[in-house]
Design a protein that fits this description.
It is built from 8 helices and 2 strands, in the order ααββαααααα. The protein is mainly alpha-helical. It folds into 2 domains: about 80 residues, no CATH class; about 60 residues, Alpha Horseshoe (Serine Threonine Protein Phosphatase 5, Tetratricopeptide repeat), CATH 1.25.40.
């Protein structure tokens, strides 16, 4: 069943380099993705052949660890690729990772920047977190007027 779930996720992703890296572990008889191969044959140079939604879905998979082992560094890389491709929810998730130092070095300025991109893209959680950044002076100058606008 895990192999089928993994193949379904990879089929949604459209990354030939990822699907080629499925291997079977003989000791546990489960499939894993060799995440180090993500983007190796990527024509667009963003990790997912220019498919922001694919990067976002795969990033969620690495972040949650339900189908593949948790790999927060790969999740951050894929969220970044998706964000760069215009996926606003990926920007919000990447901001969370920078705010909390998950898979990346903690950087409140970068977190606020990604929250701003998410908010501009219409993600309410991104706007909320941007407002909190202004309210707390986390990565941005303290500004209660901007905080109230989110």
């Amino acid at each position: 069943m895990k192999l089928l779930q993994t193949l379904l996720v990879l089929g949604l992703v459209g990354c030939s380099s990822v699907s080629e890296s499925i291997t079977s572990e003989s000791s546990s008889n489960s499939s894993v993705v060799d995440a180090s191969k993500v983007g190796q044959q990527d024509k667009a140079g963003d990790g997912c052949n220019g498919e922001a939604e694919a990067c976002y879905s795969l990033a969620n998979t690495f972040f949650e660890g339900e189908i593949v082992p948790v790999d927060l560094e790969k999740a951050a890389f894929l969220y970044y690729s998706a964000c760069k491709g215009g996926h606003a929810a990926a920007c919000s998730n990447l901001g969370f990772m920078y705010e909390n130092g998950k898979g990346v070095s903690r950087d409140l300025e970068k977190a606020a920047s990604f929250f701003a991109q998410a908010c501009k893209g219409g993600v309410v959680l991104g706007c909320h977190n941007l407002g909190l950044s202004f309210e707390r002076g986390s990565g941005l100058p303290l500004d209660l007027e901007k905080a109230s606008k989110g």
